[in-house]
Amino acid sequence: MASIKENRGFRNLRLSRWVGMQSVALLLLVPAASQAETCLAPSRPFVPSDSQAARDYADIIRQDFEAYISGIQDYFHCLEQERARAFEEAREVSQDYGRFLELVGD
Hints:
The chain is mainly alpha-helical. Helix content is 82%, strand content 0%. It has helices at 2-35, 51-56, 58-104. The longest helix is centred in the C-terminal third of the chain and has 47 residues, at 58-104.
């Protein structure tokens, strides 16, 4: 009976260590994930096929196009920044992997 209790205690200790390690890993990953930027493309402007509706709403449609052009420029800039960030991260990870392989003798 004592060995069953000891075995449960050992499993609980291992489980609590495992949960602790997962918590630390999560805390380490959250800042890295928050550095990545989400780039959202703007929605395409709608142009009615009816010429009268297009004339009636010309000012609104024009504003939609201008907002789209501004938004797509911001989107391209965001993509460029995210690309640069991702390349730098990949370079750092590659270096980390090289150091890891040295440590384990591969």
